[in-house]
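During the second year of the project, the team shifted from modelling isolated chains to modelling whole assemblies. The rationale, set out in the original proposal, was that interfaces cannot be judged from single-chain predictions alone. As a representative example for this report, we include one of the complexes processed in the last quarter. Its constituent sequences, exactly as entered into the pipeline, are reproduced here:
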Amino acid sequence: DGGITQSPKYLFRKEGQNVTLSCEQNLNHDAMYWYRQDPGQGLRLIYYSQIVNDFQKGDIAEGYSVSREKKESFPLTVTSAQKNPTAFYLCASRVVTSGIDEQFFGPGTRLTVL
Amino acid sequence: AQTVTQSQPEMSVQEAETVTLSCTYDTSENNYYLFWYKQPPSRQMILVIRQEAYKQQNATENRFSVNFQKAAKSFSLKISDSQLGDTAMYFCAFMSRMDSSYKLIFGSGTRLLVRP
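Output from the structure prediction step:
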């Protein structure tokens, strides 16, 4: 089955630690995105990548880093510089088919800072 | 900058009845997409329906339809014959075709409860 997987589902971090969230897709999509969701709010864009070996900051990139070494993978690292990292993180990939633009989402990772 | 506003934090509807969720947006662009996403308790984001701004005809997907009023910058979602499985958070989202990121800009969501 084609889709987007994220791991782990739940992640706990101590203050001062860096953690990496995994996002893998087998949909052969070029573009991938990381969004953050806080309670009572919609999703906000952290980073995106349109193509391998290239990525751009989104609206709330401070304290985060990414890499895009393979088309299928777009891991997100939450660094100790992120002041309030507890949130739900969603990865997405984008496809344009017959002129129709759509983003597909993974199941998400819930990060909690202890 | 574009913004998306959902003014109804929570709504409730009786099973089998119809409910309409509101969304307004602000943009100076003419070429964009609008979406409604559903987020059930599993938190998986599921696309419900999309509307291309250049199309005047309102999009429809089975029990879901939209009322797209471009001049008023309004994009409401109507759910007909509501089912218990429709209970979820619903997010309205905007995508600019002029922004090279093609990012989605989300509203704050409406929590819908379908009562048996």
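Chain B touches chain A through 24 residues (CB under 8 Å). The longest strand of chain B covers residues 88-96.
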